[in-house]
Design brief:
Helix content is 47%, strand content 16%. The chain is α/β, with parallel strands linked by helices. α2 packs antiparallel against α3 and α7 packs across α8. The protein contains 9 helices and 8 strands. The chain has 2 domains: 107 residues, Alpha-Beta Plaits (2-Layer Sandwich), CATH 3.30.70.240; 136 residues, no CATH class. α5 links the parallel β6 and β7. It has a 5-stranded mixed beta sheet. About 7% of the residues have low confidence.
Length: 261
Amino acid sequence: MIQLIHMNASTESSAQGGRPWLLLIHRIPPKPDYLRVKARRRLERIGAAPLKNSVYVLPASDEALEDFLWLARAIVEDGGEATVCEASFLEGMTDEAMDALLKEHAARVPDAPSAAPMDAPRGRTWVTRTGVKVDRIASAWLIRRFIDRDARFKFVAPKGYEPQPGELRFDMYRGEYTHEGDRCTFETLVARFGLVDSALTAIAEMVHDVDCKDDKFGRPETDGVARLVQGIAASHPDDGARLTRGAAAFDDLYASLARKS
């Protein structure tokens, strides 16, 4: 459950003219470990500074509120708890001290381009089932574009394959990256590697609805994506060719969505 709490300024804070601040207070399950890593990466990317253990702060703005609420929803979906608070006064902390805290934290956090997530695999062989369609085509594009630029892809029978050392399986039974809960594989990859990008979120929603057939998001572009992937599959029996054609299509879709956002 996500809570949004508005805390009215005290008389003392009003007299001092304290600015509004946003706090994200969370509790993340200790296992699996990647949940904490994912949350930390997202907090770093939006510029939030740790005020104390499990409490992060940002200057209040519509953008910051959206970032915190988006992250809070992800934490709750992963089995944690999250509360977003808005306050115009923080006990024992002046606005100037808070500004200094944010500036100091930003200086310690290295820039991490979205195309190369921290701790991402490099030059690995990514294995998936033959006969790739929307989720596997889109996931392969996501892997090579944003996770592992030197990725190699291998197509195997759906059952009975034993992975070789160093191989990573996606969209396969017992694969390292596959459906989790109601997420399709594309959504799992976005979440596991902490890819915070509104255009990728939109594509993930389209891929989910095409692959899972549940109309969860109902984006207007979804039918077009479904027909395009159907056409790629019908025109290209070879899986490698499907990935090549699909990559070009998703590159263009991403560019269009990125311009809108």
